[in-house]
Amino acid sequence: MNQSKKTREAKVYRSVILRKFESAGKRRRNYLLIRCVLAVSCALLGFLAISQYISLQKSAEEKFIEGKTTDELSNDYITLYNKNIALAARNSQLTDSASELEAAKNDDAKLQSILRAEADASKRQAGLLEVSGNGISVVITPYEEVPITSNMLIQFVNEIKAADALAIAVNGQRVVPMTEIRDTVSGFSVNGVQFSYDNPITILALGKGVDMYSALQMVGGVLDKWAQSHIDVHVDIVDNLTVPALGEQQQELMDLSAYSAGKVNATPAPASDATSDAASETTTAPATLPASTPAAVQESVLK
Question: Is CATH 3.40.630.30 the right assignment for the domain spanning 131-249?
C-alpha cells in the first residue's frame, strides 16, 4: 500500500516537473519568436525609411531643372550645346597642336615655325598686333544734355565682352586687360589718349557679329537704356573689319619686361661719376652665352 502510494507520488512529481520544463521551453520559444519578429520588423522599417529618403533626394539634373519654364530649359540647352561644341573644337585644336609638336620634335625649322605662330597668336591676343575678321562697328553720337561718361563706356565694353568679343577698340585704342577708361575735364581717355564729349565715338569689336548685336539689343540692355536718354547709337554687322594694335607709346607704358622673374630690378642711387652708371647698366643687362655653347649647357646655366 505504501509502495503504491509512493509510486503515485513519484509519477505526480515527474508529471509536474515535465509540465514545468514544457512550460519553460514554450516560454523560451515564444520569447525567441517575438525577438525574431521584432528584428525582422525593424529591418523592414529601416529599409523602407532608407528607400523613402533616397526617393526624396534629387539628383543634380533634377535640381538644375527644378522650377524652370520650358523656355528657360530651351535656353539652357542651347547654351550647354554651344559650350559643348566650343569645348570639342578646342579639344580638337589642342590635339592637333600636340600632334604637330610631336611630329616636329626632331625638325628644328618646323618647330621654330610652330613657336613663331604661337608667339604671333599670343601677341594678337595681347593686343600687340592688329586683327581682322567679322564683327560689329558701333558709332555713338553723344547727346548734348547726356554726355558719354567713362562708366557708360565701360558698361558698353563689358556687354560686348560678355558676348564673346575677341578684340575691341575704342576710337582706335585697343582695349586690353591693362586698359583704363577714365573721365577727363572735357571728355574721357582710353589708354591715356584723351577724347572730347562732342565728337562721335567709334567702337570696333571682333567676333560673332549677330551674337554681339543681339546682346546689345536686349530689352533692358545698354542700348535700351541709352535710347531712353536720346543717345544715338548706330550698330553695323561688318564682314571684314580691322581692330588696330596698341600704339607704341601705350606698349611702352604697359611693358612689364623689367619686372619679369630672373631680372635684377635694383634702382641705383644717384652717382657722380660715369663708373657707377656703367656698373648699374651692367647689373640690369641680361646674361648671354656664345652661340656655339651646347643647348643643354645653356639651359643649365640659365637656370
Answer: no
